Amino acid sequence: MLTKRRSGIAGRGSHQALAAGLTAHTLDRRGFLRKSGLAAGGLAALGSLRLGAVRPAQAAGSSADPAQAVIRKNVCTHCSVGCTVTAEVVNGVWVGQEPSWASPINRGAHCAKGAAIRELVHSDRRLRYPMKIVNGEWQRVSWDQAITEITDKLQAIRNKNGADSVYWLGSAKFTNEASYLFRKFAAYWGTNNVDHQARICHSTTVAGVANTWGYGAQTNSYNDIRNAKTMIILGGNPAEAHPISMQHVLSGKEINRANMIVIDPRFTRTAAHATEYVRIRSGTDIPVIWGILWHIFQNGWEDKAFIESRVYAMDDVRKEVAKWTPDEVERVSGVPGEQLKRVAELFAKEKPATLIWCMGATQHTVGTANVRALCILCLATGNVGKPGTGANIFRGHTNVQGATDLGLDVTTLPLYYGLVEGGWKHWARVWEVEYDWLQTRFDEVPASAGRKARSRKENMETPGLTSTRWFDAVSLPADQVDQRTPLKAMMVFGHGGNTVTRMPEAVKGMAELELLVVADPHPTTFAAMDARRDNTYLLPICTSLEMDGSRTASNRSLQWGEQIVKPAFESKNDYEVIYRMAVKLGFADSLFKNVKVVDGVPSAEDLLREINRGGWSTGYCGQSPERLKAHMKNQHKFDLVTLRAPKDDPEVGGDYYGLPWPCWGKPEIRHPGTHILYNTALHVKEGGGTFRARFGTERNGQTLLAEDSFSKGSDLTDGYPEFTFGVFRKLGWDKDLTADELATIQRIGGNNPDAVSWATDLSGGIQRVCLDHGVIPFGNGKARANAWNLPDPVPVHREPVYSPRPDLVAKYPTRPDERQFRMPNVGFSVQKAAVDRGIAKQFPIILSSGRLVEYEGGGEETRSNPWLAELQQDMFVEVNTADAAERGIKDGQFVWVYGPENSSKAKVKALVTDRVAKGVAWMPFHFSGWYQGKDMRDFYPKGADPVVLGESVNTVTTYGFDPVTGMQETKVTLCQISAA
Amino acid sequence: MARMKFLCDADRCIECNACVTACKNEHEVPWGINRRRVVTLNDGKPGERSVSMACMHCTDAPCAAVCPVNCFYTTADAVVLHSKDLCIGCGYCFYACPFGAPQYPRVGNFGSRGKMDKCTYCSGGPEVDLSVAEYEKYGSNRLAEGKLPLCAEMCSTKSLLAGDGEMIAQIYKERVIKRGYGSGAWGWKTAYRETIAI
Amino acid sequence: MRRLTSLLLLAATLALTAPAVAQVRAPDGAPNPTASSVNEEMLFKQDPKIHGRISIPNATAANLIQPQGREWREFRESWMPWIGGLAVLGMIAALGLFYFTRGRIRLEHSEESGKKILRFNSFERFSHWMTASCFIVLSLSGLNYIFGKRLLMPLIGPEAFATLAQYGKYAHIYLAWPFMLGVLFMLVLWVRDNIPGRIDWIWLKQGGGLLGDAHPSAGRFNAGQKMVFWMVVGFGLAMGATGIMMIFPFAATDINGMQVMQVIHSLIGVVFIAGILAHIYIGSLGMEGAYDAMGSGEVDLAWAKVHHDLWVKEQQAKTASGPQLGRGQVPAE
């Protein structure tokens, strides 16, 4: 052999077996499938000439019959960029993948995961049939048996402990329709304990951004970055996390000779392409941003006119920023003042400038404050609401934006309708269900530990437990968990078990649950932790490539994915599983009242239509399945930079690709969607808009409405509040409503029709008329530099709970202990104890975590894909060369990483590199299947174990939660490393 | 006829490995065989660059020259292909190849290497174009279908270019002129005895 | 040969060079990653090959470009056929010339002609012939790597040749092991009798009897045979060592090391073949009576006395009853 196979199997016996298996069997089976496709299909006529002159296509002899190869388009399930996946299907078998040239988002390209996505469907390591664990052994069961047993147990737990004792953990890999259905299902079940991965990726972004200017989403798009003259990427590594976005980032960098500034503790693959790299100490984002703003204010580089007309209370920020002199910034963050001055000047002067961030900014105890500070930097320099500017927030999973929008969240209903009576009543109207009946589904919570009792209605309006604390809500004493009883059951749909911090405590929580159900294409870490002997079920769910439905990319574009092939093995899609459970629980008829169900499978199109009927608040009302399908069909017509189709096109004329929300009004009025949020240079009908007047009209004598700023063609040439029927009547615009629209408004409003708003008017009349008057339904407000409703209205620096700089903790402590989301958050006590016990001396290395391009999330799915798994065969820790030398650690050897809580430790390989600074270590978060040095492979159901296993970084991560969203701290903790 | 080449624009390459898995996907390449790979130079330090590398389909290919059974041939598109029927798995082409392209599956003990496998520029082998036998031995034949290698077609940042040498050189030149920098056409000097003058 | 030398020196130089990247900095001294990116020229100045980091465990794959492959090719395709051809054909020509000028060295008859003396016992002969037969296959299959495509392939066509070459490769890999074993056996069996001594110097000065009239004295092995022995042991072990490196590639060295191994293997190989050709010649066609030593194991006493007088004396001294006679081979008189 010429390649060094001995090392090729990574020194682990399992890989050897795998390598043998792959060469001996798998290839044959697939080779056969593929061959059958080739022989029948020929695939000849599909290509076109590109780049170089190629020989003209030659048909594959007489057997070629292109008609047999069907092309189906879906959306890559691996990140929020939203790459189109083009599949060739022959006889129901997915035989090949072609570049999706037509998609304006990926233009044919994929990353390692997208280019290997066919294997997800074919994978031999998928969970094949429902299973349950009996006395520690996995057993195959039928779907009927599984659903019956699960629902019986759920009902029993509910009867005994109440609805809130069951946690409904959904997924950012759901389609929009499944996300919506899952949220609706939880409402019918009677709990707000429903969450998904956004909690641990961008919950702080959503909270921070929405609290600044209205909506918690990327303001512009990946494509629009091509317009930027300056871009700052802070706490993000798109080269690995969003590789296709780099096509646009690097193109922008090249075309405009743009400044590309990367601010990160780690010299990432993205930083390698930066024009300027700023290395900061993890967790000092606010000092760095305020440090940049200090120079901006000091030199008068801020956009005064913009601030004057569109920003509220920037002066409050000035006061805080004044404290962050270059010296103090350098003392806290390690960044020299001169470098920040240069960055500040570029960002303020070389416009348009955009700010890109990702989980490096959000996954902190100060995540929301970080995000707020970033927004304020955009506002101060006038870099919002124009092409090439904006907060380009790169979200994580394929549909994390959509799942967030559709309410897989403990604080909202679908489309950000609040957990208030008005919100519940709105959805009750859409669902055609009695509001009172919904209320009866919720628990009454008795008084406990000095807290007042809650009625059903109050409980219905109380935010639920965050997914970051689910195990605390199982294990903590009952009086500390503010609901009828602590958690007894976990229903986990498409969510890894290794992505939440503090694994040792999660394992404890798992063991105490009365019921654990994992519904996923793979068994996930939950199945492999050896914590459960009984009452645990695995339900095989198909990937979203095997089902119909839409996904919302990070840029708010919705894309319709069509089923490529039938679900593999016995797997079923989310819709069907939810339907079957609803049938057993007795509310299927009501839940699916307006949704066609064929052979037990609810229609994705009908679900989207229902979303359209209720999605006014976020402009999810115009994206009908028909329009979305037309977009997928006509992808090639959309412009690469503006994302707009030519106006004269009969099917998608004038639309922005994917009808990025808000797409106002009913589908019939053909609003084009909004490519760039808050863009006053465009008419609202063309996707223009203003900052949302979400926070009232006045505060402390200062107006919260925009001054002398309005979107193009607006009838109102100043700020205005959001529109209600009452406002309409004052303006006399009620006359523009049709009789039908008026009737609907009257019906909704009952005896107070004036209160019916743009967001609750099911007729869409208010929105339609607003567009005709060139105004945006949600009002024309100011963005808030001071968000008075947040714990820190103006962001202030707070040291991480486990700070490597105990000397700074006294001056910059974390927030005091308080209760949030039904749980205590004792970060302050933990921080104090860590300082008192000298933890930073015993654990002198900062530990951060992040992404690898080959894997996604908890990684079970991608680590089960041999094409990807081969590229990253070992969990590792990046150790700085100097730290490694001090500890006698060689590149590639095993080391122990010790965490400061629970005596935790993880055995991983050392990757000795200068990517991390001295005193900093970094681990990827996609691994699991080893636990504190032990290989857990045998605990997986046979044949469903991922190819590659490794320690989870979260075995050694620690306490720390954002006060606004319960976000966990994954980016800064402390550790010690020694050779194993 | 075109003279097919690869060009990796390292100033665009982000080591996303799409080229690697696209290749695996297109040809069902087994574990342990990497027809294409991405190498990162100066890792973790300023100036770091990643380069995607596979068979460069050299002019006057060294693999072909050293093969003791002359199993290599060059197509009209200047793609260097080989016959697995003739290959004896001696490993000489790996010693000669400047780019580490040849790969060998392990077949038996003591290193009896299997037939060499390498990038075919997505153009199969000596068998009849698009035949089952060709697919089984070499993977698919995109060139015969009028398509270019999938690794380049799917490249996340359009870093990896494939196509007629003059055309991709032109694309690269235009990029460098537009953006003002370029770390050069990696491997061209060794493979084609030429560089792209800008 | 300049290229070859540079190739051989490569391994040494590789260890000495350490990477150091020139960094372009912004006016205030901050590094500018875009402008200071590495390029091929810069990296080649630091190191003759370009290597980096790769996530797959195959360390060889971390080499991006190793232009030494072209030098190795130059050696293998431009030099090796000539070196090999000259070595092998040169030796054949030399032996032919010798044969035609000097003819076969005849057995000098004496009164003891016809008496036999055991020169090599059966295990010694087994070791010799195992090694020898392996060597013949190894050298033919080895030469095939160089000359097969030039000589044989045009005659029998590519398919037949590839099949033959494939079997040749298997033979080369599998027979290497008994060959190496044989070399070790012979080393153990004969090393005691092959220690060079003063007598060998005299033997050499007299050209082994070819110069002058008298036969120089020799022990069990004369200097010529000792040279063959040490050649077989030395080259055999070298071929074995380099060969094992190639059977388990990259286990102990990198790509350039592998190239060096192959160069050594092939160079020694052809010299070895040439040497063994001479050995075969002298042991068969070149000298009457010599073959019997490895044939039946018994040689004519007269021949032995001429060529290995000291050894015969030693053997006779060991047995009081005179020359040790072979079983059932009673002298005629």
Automatic annotation (TrEMBL), chain A:
Pfam family for this entry, one:
Molydop_binding
Cofactor(s) demanded: Mo-bis(molybdopterin guanine dinucleotide); [4Fe-4S] cluster
Would you identify the family this protein belongs to, as annotated?
Answer: Belongs to the prokaryotic molybdopterin-containing oxidoreductase family.
Which GO CC terms are listed, alphabetically? Answer: cell envelope
Can you name this protein? Formate dehydrogenase
Which SMART domains does the UniProt record give? Molybdop_Fe4S4
PROSITE patterns recorded for this chain?
Answer: 4FE4S_MOW_BIS_MGD, MOLYBDOPTERIN_PROK_1, TAT
Q: Which organism is it from?
A: Methylobacterium platani
- What are the protein's UniProt keywords? 4Fe-4S, Iron, Iron-sulfur, Metal-binding, Molybdenum, Oxidoreductase, Signal
Q: Which GO terms describe its molecular function?
A: 4 iron, 4 sulfur cluster binding; electron transfer activity; molybdenum ion binding; molybdopterin cofactor binding; oxidoreductase activity
Main location group = other
Subcellular localization(s) per the UniProt record: Cell envelope
Which ranges does the record mark as transmembrane? none
Cite the 4Fe-4S Mo/W bis-MGD-type domain residue spans from the record.
Answer: 69-125
Q: Which InterPro entries match?
A: Asp_de-COase-like_dom_sf, MoPterin_dinucl-bd_dom, Mopterin_OxRdtase, Mopterin_OxRdtase_4Fe-4S_dom, MopterinOxRdtase_cofactor_BS, TAT_signal
For this protein, the record's Gene3D superfamilies field holds: 2.40.40.20, 3.40.50.740, ADC-like domains, Dimethylsulfoxide Reductase, domain 2
Q: Which GO terms describe its biological process?
A: anaerobic respiration
Automatic annotation (TrEMBL), chain B:
Per UniProt, what is one Pfam family of this protein? Fer4_6
GO molecular function terms noted in the UniProt entry: 4 iron, 4 sulfur cluster binding; metal ion binding
Describe the location of the 4Fe-4S ferredoxin-type domain by residue ranges.
4-34, 78-107
Q: Which UniProt keywords apply?
A: 4Fe-4S, Iron, Iron-sulfur, Metal-binding
Q: Which domain of life is it from?
A: Bacteria
- What name has this protein been given in UniProt? Formate dehydrogenase
TrEMBL record, chain C:
What GO CC annotations are associated with the protein? Answer: formate dehydrogenase complex; plasma membrane
Please list the cofactors this protein needs. heme
Q: Which UniProt keywords apply?
A: Cell membrane, Electron transport, Heme, Iron, Membrane, Metal-binding, Signal, Transmembrane, Transmembrane helix, Transport
Q: Where in the cell is it found?
A: Cell membrane
Q: Which domain of life is it from?
A: Bacteria
Major site of localization recorded for this protein: membrane
Q: Which GO terms describe its biological process?
A: anaerobic respiration; formate oxidation; respiratory electron transport chain
What kind of membrane protein is this, topologically?
A: Multi-pass membrane protein
Task: Give every Cytochrome b561 bacterial/Ni-hydrogenase domain span.
Answer: 119-286
> Which regions span the lipid bilayer?
79-100, 126-147, 171-191, 228-251, 263-282
The answer on whether this UniProt entry bears the keyword Transmembrane reads yes
Query: Would you indicate the residue range of the signal peptide?
Result: 1-22
One of the record's GO molecular function terms: formate dehydrogenase (NAD+) activity
Q: Which NCBIfam families match?
A: formate-DH-gamm
Q: Which family does it belong to?
A: Belongs to the formate dehydrogenase gamma subunit family.
PANTHER family linked: FORMATE DEHYDROGENASE GAMMA SUBUNIT, FORMATE DEHYDROGENASE, NITRATE-INDUCIBLE, CYTOCHROME B556 FDN SUBUNIT
Name-wise, this protein is: Formate dehydrogenase subunit gamma
